[in-house]
Design a protein that fits this description.
The chain is α+β, with helices and mostly antiparallel strands. It folds into 2 domains: 144 residues, Serine Threonine Protein Phosphatase 5, Tetratricopeptide repeat, CATH 1.25.40; 303 residues, Porin. The chain is built from 7 helices and 17 strands. A hairpin with a 2-residue loop joins strand 13 and strand 14. The longest helix has 18 residues. The relative contact order is 0.11.
């Protein structure tokens, strides 16, 4: 069984029905004078009671399309896609010219992984004369996604190049007065925060091989590469390459549940010198629900830092890192195109020197919103994050009596505009501030970036 809607199409699924305005396509016999409450406002208990009552009414009056459509809507909200499909198919038995019903059936079959059936209903909906042009475009996106999923080899690609400005590129402290060996000291101007620009490029790819069995098992491989070159501080040129690969396995009769064990490897350069390498493994458990998905996971990395002429003591940070997290995402049925994303994480890192070992907890949230404007497809995604980090022991070179404790806030927005087919432009504004019990680590930084994107 395939998992549910992909992130971009999930919002479009709701937008299709909202934009279509197809209520006139459904006969009005038996229509209630007072419209029922939106299903998104009802509790699960209320939905189940209404579903039972509506089912009885459909048996008594099978030609009442208002009752049948409401029953399908309530059943879909409860995750009973088969019941919703049955109700909608009965409507088509009596009247074929119902494009909204065709759309609903296409979405339901898509969620169930019945892609051939979904494509048939989408195509019937798209050719209906009353279907608006923007709905046809979004239906076309589903049809293209279906074609990809029906192929055993699926590839996704994203790339961006651009320019980035940072007000504190070297992560300098807010004040010239810092701690050294437990005493106040004054930093030289070369070590205070300084701004800089860089040119950057990022390429990420995802390859999925579908074993085409009943459980929907796949093999997934993700690759990310990044490089930035500073205009002033060459010692901060940053490079990254990371790959992970492993199977995703459906769990028998548990619909929408899959597990993915994987292995990973990465390499990081700083100042164009090898800085850190890592190997590791992890596992995630994904549950695809009607409202979105939730995915807890755990990951272990064995990190090795390498000394260089620019960074002669970083090998002291060599050690292990374990991260546990919960990812969740979903969409708002009442606001087409609006989604939500969240992540809770906890990290434990150990190092050769205990002063660099730490525990961290973090929470992140974002609200991506997709909409059409000025003939373009826009995505605006405001986000916020908070991280608290506690180090095991004091660093005697800073303050032998005080172990470091940081609290970091991140607030920002990404704007992504589709310009032509797979080409777009993305811009980001982000503010980061770290509050620490040691003045050496109290920092703030504004980050602004912009550049063209390519995706397929």
């Amino acid at each position: 069984m395939k998992s549910g809607l992909p992130a971009k199409l999930r919002g479009a699924a709701v937008a299709i029905l909202a934009a279509a305005g197809f209520s006139s396509a459904i006969p009005t016999e038996g229509r209630a004078q007072n419209a029922p409450a939106p299903v998104s406002t009802l509790s699960e208990g209320q939905l189940r009671l209404e579903a039972d009552e509506l089912f009885k009414r459909t048996l008594v009056d099978p030609k009442n399309f208002d009752i049948a459509f409401r029953y399908a809507e309530v059943s879909a909200r409860l995750g009973d896609y088969e019941a919703a499909i049955g109700a909608l198919e009965r409507m088509l038995f009596y009247t074929r010219d119902l494009p909204r019903v065709e759309l609903e059936l296409g979405l339901l079959y898509f969620r169930l992984g019945s892609y051939e059936m979904a494509r048939s209903h989408f195509e019937h909906a798209a050719v209906a004369p009353q279907t608006p042009p923007d709905v046809r475009l979004r239906v076309d996106a589903f049809v293209k996604e279906i074609e990809k999923r029906l192929s055993p080899n699926q590839l996704a690609f994203y790339a961006q190049v651009g320019l980035r400005y940072q007000s504190n590129a070297n992560a300098g402290p807010n004040s010239a007065v810092v701690r050294a060996l437990g005493f106040d000291a004054t930093l030289g101007s070369a070590f205070l925060k300084q701004s800089d620009w860089n040119a950057f490029g990022i390429i990420s790819g995802r390859y999925v091989y579908d074993f085409e069995n009943q459980r929907g098992d796949t093999w997934e491989t993700n690759l990310t590469t990044y490089y930035s070159r500073q205009f002033k501080f060459g010692r901060l040129n940053l490079g990254l390459a990371e790959i992970d690969t492993g199977p995703r396995l459906g769990l028998g009769s548990l619909m929408g549940v899959s597990v993915r064990p994987y292995v990973l490897a990465n390499a990081v350069t700083l100042g164009d010198r090898t800085f850190q390498t890592a190997t590791g493994a992890g596992a995630t458990l994904r549950y695809q629900a009607p409202w979105g998905q939730i995915e807890p996971g755990i990951e272990f990395r064995n990190r090795s830092y390498r000394n260089s002429d620019l960074y002669p003591t970083v090998a002291d940070q060599t050690g292990q890192q374990t991260v546990g997290y919960i990812l969740a995402s979903g969409f708002f049925e009442s606001v087409p195109g609006l989604r939500w994303q969240g992540k809770l994480s906890t990290t434990r890192a150990t190092s050769r020197v205990a002063a660099f070992s730490y525990r961290q907890v973090g929470i992140e949230a974002a609200l991506p919103y997709e909409f059409d404007g000025m003939g373009r497809r826009w995505t605006v995604a405001p986000s916020i994050g908070y991280f608290e980090t506690r180090y095991d022991q004091p660093n005697i070179l800073v303050d032998p009596t005080t172990a470091r404790r940081d609290r970091e806030w991140r607030v920002g927005t990404i704007v992504d505009v589709n310009v032509y087919q797979n080409i777009g432009v993305a811009a980001q504004v982000q503010y980061m501030r770290t509050l620490s019990n040691l003045p050496n680590y109290r920092t703030q930084n504004w980050v602004v970036s912009i550049g063209p994107t390519v995706r397929f």
